[in-house]
From TrEMBL:
GO biological process, one term: transmembrane transport
Family: Belongs to the binding-protein-dependent transport system permease family.
Region spans: Disordered: 1-35
Cell membrane as UniProt keyword: yes
Main location: membrane
Span of domain ABC transmembrane type-1: 119-309
Name of the featured protein: ABC transporter permease
Localization annotation: Cell membrane
């Protein structure tokens, strides 16, 4: 009886055995035990498995490559026209990646070449405006949310003033001052009026973050304001700002195309999808491809950035997982 009892009762684990079991990955019943992932590594882990993110990332990578290295896709000039031979010529769908693949416009210019070279203006405006509004709007929102009081009151009134200006109408008024409108002038005009949304999001996120225990602990330990903002507040308040900025990037590209369509955006000879849509509107019945192809490019680009923003939002928001 004593032999049976001794055989069925396991010996108690020593403290060293417990420590080894807890420290060894993969030895527990709950699976591998290791260092817990941070918010960003956990978000990246989810993004890599999200088909929406993968599809949008592939599209955006292709668009960025087109805008930086258009010569990889075509050697044809987007400005050279041949009215005698290519006036409103229909697309030759069997001639892949050739100048006649997507047809020609009313000036005998290759639509495929203009689509490739037009990506640079649209993507540059979208990225530049996003960086500018994220920096300035984020800075204003962070100062207003962290300091509060009269600083918040003044900055909030300035924010409300700019928010009351219609975005496209205000951009039209600003751009109408310039005789020649380059990519950077259009980007500055859109950033001048488009920073309010980022500022509001940053302000609300900073107000929530500054009430956290780690921020209060840093203040109690005598950390300076600059250190608290850069080391504690900003890294933990930036997630919603990234989401809003990513989604807004597509909106800025659409705004540039809208202004160019109205004739108040980027000036020739710069190639722009919005200008091509404007030029093709008069040929909708005779040659609809002149209008539809650049319009589809604008829609696909805007959709790609909106899809990316949705995927990032789902990855960074624990409530949506």
């Amino acid at each position: 009886m004593s032999d049976v009892t001794q055989a069925t009762i396991p010996a108690p684990a020593t403290p060293s055995d417990v420590d080894k079991s807890a420290a060894t990955p993969g030895t527990g019943d709950g699976g591998p035990v290791g260092k817990p992932r941070s918010l960003w590594s956990d978000a990246w882990h989810d993004l890599r498995r999200n088909p929406l993110f993968v599809a949008s990332a592939v599209l955006i990578t292709l668009l960025l490559t087109m805008s930086v290295f258009p010569g990889l896709f075509t050697s044809a000039s987007p400005r050279r026209g041949d009215l005698a031979n290519h006036f409103l010529q229909a697309p030759q769908l069997t001639h892949f990646f050739s100048p006649e693949w997507l047809g020609y416009d009313a000036q005998g210019r290759s639509i495929y070449a203009r689509v490739i070279h037009g990506a640079r203006a649209s993507v540059t405006v979208g990225v530049a405006v996003t960086l500018l509004v994220t920096f300035f709007g984020g800075l204003i929102g962070m100062l207003a949310g962290y300091f509060g009081g009269w600083i918040d009151s003044i900055l909030s009134r300035i924010l409300d003033t700019f928010a009351g200006i219609p975005f496209l109408l205000g951009a039209m008024v600003v751009l109408n001052v310039f005789d020649v409108r380059t990519v950077w002038i259009v980007a500055l005009a859109l950033a001048f009026l488009g920073w309010t949304q980022i500022a509001r999001v940053t302000r609300g996120s900073v107000i929530t973050t500054k009430q956290s225990d780690y921020v209060q602990a840093a203040k109690a330990l005598g950390a300076g304001t600059g250190r608290i903002l850069t080391r504690h507040v900003l890294p933990n308040a930036v997630a919603p700002v990234i989401v809003v900025a990513t989604i807004a990037l597509g909106g800025y590209i659409a705004a540039e195309a809208s202004l160019s369509f109205l004739g108040i955006g980027i000036s020739p000879p710069t190639v722009s999808w919005g200008m091509d849509v404007s030029d093709g509107k008069d040929q909708l019945r005779n040659a609809p491809h002149v209008l539809l192809i650049p319009a589809v490019m604008v829609s696909v680009t805007v959709l790609a950035f909106i899809m990316l923003g949705d995927a990032v939002r789902n990855a960074l928001d624990p409530k949506l997982r």
